[in-house]
Amino acid sequence: MFDRGIELKTPEQITTMRAAGLVVGRTLELLRREVRAGMTTAELDAMAHEHIRSQGATSNFLGYGAHGPAGAGGFAGVICTSVNDEVVHGVPGSRVLRDGDIISIDCGAIVDGWHGDAAITVAIGGVPPEVSALLEVTEDSMWAGIAAAALGGRVGDISHAIETAVDAAGDFGIVEGYTGHGIGSQMHQPPDVPNYGKPRRGPKLVQGLALAVEPMVTLGSAATRTLADDWTVVTNDGSWAAHFENTFTLTPTGTWVLTALDGGRERLAALGVPYGGH
Prior knowledge:
14 strands, alpha+beta, 3-stranded antiparallel β-sheet
């Protein structure tokens, strides 16, 4: 640990987090391939549940937030399925996906007590150009944030890079009420990683720190509200939203994206960032 209760991992613990990250990455790639119009979000969740189990991992989403002797209020899926104007935390259920929808799929897994967490947004069939642009901008801003991280830097460098990338791309909204986060022996840990802010602010980026970076971007207002299920977050104005996330760490040789199947090597190289995986 170091300041503000932030957990630092040993290289061996980071290696275990990589194993959890690969489970998450493989699950998301499976779901990206298989999601289609006519499928319910519950069917997608069942597919993810079986795949995570088959990899020898457990879900860190299922039952998350449970309280009381009966575990009331725990999340009811192994993935979050957020469709169209749903920003994050959509609960899998009977909703039928349709051609032209977009769906954010957020997934997490635990291996030997260590966590991975990542998300993608997928278009089902054809979508208008502005929706395609939304997905591209959101994913690119996530990578811009990761690329801005370096040993000795600050969390604010990541936040500022995300905001700068989104603002440069056009008139999009950046959701401010939900952030990225530290991750390790728990899924959500200090520090918060906002998707906006000034550089050279916040906790220092040091070896052993692992962060989940996850911009949430909208086609309209960034204002949100939570539905009656106490989980699903939607935009106030009904504008569509996208969400991408990866877990990464910094090593002495560069950046290692623990939830990317290639460790982030391809995207990091395109951004001129040294790869720090193994």
